[in-house]
Amino acid sequence: MNFLSLFVLLPLLMILTLFMTSNRKQVLGTMVAGSTLLVILSAFLAYRYMAARSDGATDPMLFTASLSWFEPLHIRYAVGVDGVSVVMLCLTSLIVFTGTFVSWKMAPLTKEFFLWYCLLATGVFGFFISTDLFTLFLFYETALIPMYLLIGVWGTGRKEYAAMKLTLMLMGSSMILLVGILGIYFSSGATSMNITDLVHISIPLEQQYLFFTLTFFGFGVLGALFPFHTWSPDGHASAPTAVSMLHAGVLMKLGGYGSFRVAITLMPEAAEKLSPIFLVLTAIGVVYGALAAIRQTDLKYINAYSSVSHCNLVLFAILMLTQTALTGAVLQMLSHGLITALFFALIGMIYSRSHTRLITDMGGLMKIMPFLGVGFVVAGLSNIGVPGFSGFVAEMTIFVGAFENDDLFRRILTVAAVTSIVIGAVYILRTIGKFLYGPLQNPEHGKLDDARWYERLAVITLVAAIIYLGSFPTGISAMINDSFSSMLQVAR
Amino acid sequence: MSYFSNFATMRSEGSLLALILFLLLFDILAGRKGKNYFQPVAILLFALHTLFTLMPAEAGESFGGMVQYHPMMTMVKTMLNIATLIIFLQSKHHFDGPEQKYQQGEYYFLTLSTLLGMYLMISSGHFLLFFIGLEMASIPLAALVAFNKHHKKSAEAGAKFILLSAFSSGILLFGISYLYGTTGSLYFSDIPSLLSHNPLQIMAFVFFLSGLFFKISIVPFHLWTADVYEGAPTNVTAYLSVVSKSSAVFVLMTLLFKVFGNFVVEWQTMLFWLIIVTITVGNLFALRQKNVKRFLAFSSISQAGYIALGIISGSPLGMTTVVYYLFVYLFSNLAAFGVITAIGSRTGKMNIPDYKGLYQTNPKLSFVMMMALFSLAGIAPFAGFMSKFFIFSAAAQQGYYLLVIIAVINTILSLYYYLMVVKAMFIDQSDHPVPALRTDSWNRASMVICTAAIMFAGMLGFIFSYLGDYSFGL
User: Fold this and answer.
1) Considering the entire predicted model, what is its pTM?
2) Which of A253, B59, B67, B342 could cross-link A333 (Cys pair, CB 3.0–4.6 Å)?
């Protein structure tokens, strides 16, 4: 038994404990203890990983283990991590941790809420540690279905519509992905579904075209690939706060992570040939998401469209296929995960006080809730890419990496995508100006209180992570970069 | 060879026959008091019979090839036993009343007789024995369907079932007669070498298959399914949709692999189109159902299409995945039927809108139902996910990517209607929800077994590997 499996076992243990709890205190106690352990575990993993690398470990995947599972199909339970998975695991545990505190007052059915929340976390953690296509897909699917009930039962607004739309679109794309995975396995003629073995086997080119499209599309829909992003704004706007955080912060990254881990790594030739089509789509998505965000008045929709824009940027960077751009993509996943989680957390906190999310109904909130206001400004500035915050590091790396391609086509698309930063400034500054500053719109809002201790804890954790990533990115980006160099070497 | 060793390969049939005769005598001879013990004794003895059948034995044949024996058959028979046992646990409550007590004997006798018929069908090595088994499996079943004979719908369903079943048997027999006419033999082992692509033989083959497709309710032979499922008592519906269907699927598969291996091109083409139609029609009709039993009827039609995906591959992997799929399907479907029985027998509510707000009053039943539906829909991490994944891989391995794509698109359709039930239970509010129920401990035991299997059977890789060891292909 390898210690990576703890990432799956711990949430499962939390589910089991939650089943036995009988009151609110026990539920929250379980969640706080469990999610703190997860944070410690991921910090320990990061430390062990860096120590192993500095000791000269050169394998693409470290801490690997593999157990036979379904013999007739050569399916194994295989785990292993490289730099990318390590940072994604850290991100996930941070967001699960802060999500717990954000849902402190969650009611009704607190216990059931956290049950599904932990199942969702199990899926995400399992996905990032898997190296076998089957377990990867198993955990991917596990992460999808809890969303239906989390949105349907605890959501707000048009929750039933949003929940059904999100579930059907994501499940639909994952089914397409399933065909892609089977295609990869059978057309490679391999006797293992392990990615680390499959990279050494080349798949015939004609089949690569088909299966690359299926796989990339399958993962891409979860990464909000334009024009299949429509589940995302509705879903995020209707979901309860912690679920929006986890979904936009981590679950959408499964799409980006999967598309390079499976689609690009295993079928590099097809990726090279087919990337222009998808590049155009993602570039449109980047600009479209940003433009759509301008038009919104609901805070959650603004952030949801901003997420569409940023997640498309992740896919865009991945398709650029240079080492720098790929590193940028992962940095963007991290950075956007933190920023969007912070945004959704703050929106949830403000909404629980003012009972409105429309920026036109609010104003002058900065004076009334300065803590939340400052948090929002930090998230906003980081979203635009102001130096010192994580957004800058990520976007800078992506655009430099994208420009390394010396053909005109990719450069024009890069320039087009860069405009999203300017548009981003428009909607973020406009939003902040409207509802945080200016005169008080509703006198009732004058009586509202500022953040409680559990909310402060969540916000401070996320802000600290954003500033850390923005100020000291070297260690993390070197870790990611190394993984890509070994991965690209194998692929070539 | 002594006669004794002949019977050794038929020991599961023998033990079941002994059980049937014992129960028959028990029911006749027992007094008023003794009748109270009838059901526990019957269930216990049947559980012992299940364990007895489970014991593995060497492959072989007896009565000159009339009866064949293969370890895979033991596994399928054990699965049928487990399913029947679960159904007995679920139906126990039904015969507890003073009025119903006098019907319990016939219920067990009829059910076990059909099971014996299925045993014979599975282990036959000759078309005559096969046909006897098939008839034994369907005629008592018609009586079971009409079990609530004073209920108009049940009686109608029984009449429908017996008429259509007789008709399909007739067609099947017609096919067998042509087969005999063109090959001169009815032994499974002789026929493969005697098959030429004579048009008459192809016709015989098609007639024969139609009869079997009727049993599995492959579209377009499915029209009886919804009415019969709706009219039959719930436990009989469960029996029809799980036990009867599983046995027919397995027999179809072994016959196609062993006897009609020469016609592989013909039956693969046939199945290709039938699968597409079956999955799609089953799903589209399921979308519109309000009655839970009709809903599960159409869902089981589409499940039959998925199962056929494993058959069409014609490979050992296909056989492994089909049996595994049946294994998982058994628990998922019976868990759903357990909930339906629990609610239906106490409140008489059978429509999906009646399930609104069920979670508020009956959280445990709702959880069981949800897991059952998720498993049927093939959602991770429940066992149904693994079985669907495997059956798709069996088809993909042989290059049926188009078929797999159509099947996965249909999975989304099916997910929609399964989620509608989940939505009714968990999300919708109702003014008149089903009141809080106390299920009897027997039914609760059945649901615990099913839920445990849904959660863990998929994780236990050795089951799949074990099935893989005994599978064979074309």
Assistant:
1) 0.92
2) A253
